[in-house]
Design a protein that fits this description.
The structure holds two protein chains of two kinds.
Chain A lengths: L4 H16 L20 H15 L5 H4 L5 H10 L1
Chain B lengths: L2 E9 L6 H9 L5 E3 L4 H5 L5 E3 L11 H6 L2 H16 L10 E7 L4 H14 L8 H5 L3 H10 L4 E3 L7 H14 L5 E8 L4 H9 L29 E9 H6 L6 E10 L12 H14 L6 E5 L8 H13 L7 E3 L2 H4 L6 H15 L1 E2 L15 E2 L5 E2 L6 E8 L3 E8 L1
Parallel strand pairs in B: 4-5, 4-6, 9-10, 9-14, 10-12
Antiparallel strand pairs in B: 1-7, 1-8, 2-3, 6-7, 8-15, 11-13, 14-15
The chains are: A mainly alpha, B alpha/beta.
Chain lengths: 80, 409
């Protein structure tokens, strides 16, 4: 059963918070991973790998560059 | 160029910092305990105890720090932060600051956990930070990053001599003019079923599962192998000129370094200990000292049937009858063997002994080896004489690596 966008956001915020110490409340849809959350490329790949496992989805490497904001990632995962 | 020690840091099986570790060492406490896991049942690991950290790094580091660093690097960072603060957070040009932090084994937890992931969940689940976490230069790289050490960052690897060799390299970086200040030491986090099984397969480990605290017993007639330990030790070394200019507190001077290789066997020490003795001799020579200046030796002494006495005979042959007045201590009796961290933690002990003129005891020696001809400090601390004195810290590693450091006050 597919997860709702709200459920994906909650789960994704938990992963981001674990990796970066950013409060889960700060991880909102409009935030940019690099510009707002200061997440470097290796951390981004870590978050993607953990999200793939958590949500049982496949996020191709070439797709990761399109996931600019948290909302982009939530949309992709919820639709996958 | 004179080199001095201005900062000390550790996290060890005796405590989460230098003060608690030193206090426990003087009290003769053992940091060796039964492991809280079922590796014996699950995999048949024959040894069920080790010298584990009192304060896990996860209690003092942030969550992301513990996720980005292998435990070996985490321990190094904990010890380096303490040492740096202890040195009074020196102001130094980054291009004149070096880091030399070694590990004997490297990120073994990261490597083997990642391999479990590949086998159980597939290659796509391997985390992108795996390589920077498992590489053996990771601890020195993180230290360099944190303190902006740009004069050079190194991690000489020589098994159980790695930590001492790192301090030796730090000493030489300053002596050769490459740096004014160097953060140096060693770290190890290898209490994992594979290294335990592998060292046990060499018959190197004590099998006293029923008496963990009594298992590490250097020089005792019933010693039966070393006890695995974990942790890190870090020193801040500084040119005397730089330390004086900023009014730094100085613990001791690094006076000499002797490094030799046995070229005898991949794991066994040369039976007559010639390489080990020559390392001590070279270190004293470089320090411009004679054997009469030596008041204390912190021995490598890991509690193995053969190794302990090869070193002890070497000390006796080098010091002659003066060995009767040299206070010998084997602190691995309390901490276990920190492998790549050993030479660094034991340098911390050696320097504290000189600073406080108090030598920590060797515990668990109920019946000393009858061939031991050096004055062994047993059970309770003993006082060092006043005046100018020097101490030797020995470290030897599989592969025939011999490192002797000489400190003085």
């Amino acid at each position: 059963m597919a997860l709702s966008k709200d459920e994906v956001l909650v789960g994704l915020a938990e992963i981001v918070s674990e990796e970066t110490d950013i409060d889960t409340a700060e991880v909102t849809l409009e935030k940019s991973f690099t510009d707002d959350l200061d997440i470097d490329s290796l951390s981004m790949m870590t978050i993607v790998t953990l999200a793939e496992e958590k949500f049982d989805v496949r996020i191709p490497d070439e797709k990761v560059k399109d996931l600019v904001t948290v909302g982009d990632a939530v949309d992709y995962i919820a639709a996958a | 160029m004179n080199v001095v020690v201005t900062g000390l840091g550790t996290t060890s099986p005796l405590g989460g910092d230098v003060a608690s570790t030193w206090e426990a060492a003087l009290a003769g406490r053992s940091g060796v305990r039964t492991l809280e896991n079922d590796w014996a049942e699950q995999y048949g690991v024959p040894v069920t105890f080790a010298g584990q950290l009192v304060v896990p790094p996860s209690e003092v580091l942030s969550r992301p720090e513990t996720k980005r660093m292998d435990p070996s690097a985490q321990m190094a960072i904990v010890a380096a932060r303490e040492a740096w603060a202890d040195a009074g957070t020196p102001e130094v040009d980054p291009e004149r600051l070096g880091s030399v932090v070694s590990s004997g084994i490297g990120g073994v937890w990261t490597m083997l956990t990642a391999w479990d992931t590949v086998k159980e969940r597939g290659a796509s689940r391997v985390l992108p930070l795996t390589v920077p976490m498992l590489m053996p230069n990771s601890p020195t790289a993180y230290v360099s990053l944190e303190f902006k050490a740009r004069a050079g960052s190194h991690s000489p690897v020589s098994a159980c001599a790695s930590g001492a060799e790192a301090i030796g390299m730090g000493f030489e970086m300053i002596q050769s003019g490459r740096a004014d200040v160097v953060i140096c030491g060693g770290t190890e986090a290898a209490i994992h079923p594979l290294p335990l099984s592998a060292f046990a397969a060499m018959q190197a480990l004590s099998k006293r599962n029923d008496d963990p605290a009594g298992a590490s017993r250097p020089y005792d007639v019933s010693r039966d192998g070393f006890v695995m330990g974990e942790g890190a030790g870090v020193l801040v070394l500084e040119s005397e000129e730089h330390a004086k200019a900023r009014g730094a507190r100085v613990y001791a001077s690094v006076l000499g370094l002797g490094m030799t290789a046995d070229a005898h066997h991949i794991a066994a020490p040369e039976p007559n200990g010639a390489g080990q003795t020559r390392a001590m001799e070279l270190a004293l020579e470089r320090a411009g000292l004679t054997t009469a200046d030596v008041a204390h030796v912190n021995a490598h002494a890991t509690s193995t049937p053969v190794g302990d006495m090869i070193e002890a005979r070497g000390i006796r042959s080098l010091l002659g009858s003066h060995a009767d007045q040299v206070l010998l201590s084997a602190t691995k009796s309390m901490t276990g063997h920190l492998l790549g961290g050993a030479g660094a933690l034991e340098s911390v002990f050696t320097i504290k002994a000189l600073e406080t003129r108090t030598v920590p005891p060797t515990i668990n020696v109920t019946e000393p080896d009858p061939e031991l001809e050096v004055d062994l400090v047993r059970d309770t601390p003993r006082a060092l004489p006043e005046g100018q004195i020097a101490a030797i810290n020995n470290s030897f590693g599989f592969g025939g690596h011999n490192v002797a450091l000489v400190f003085g006050v």
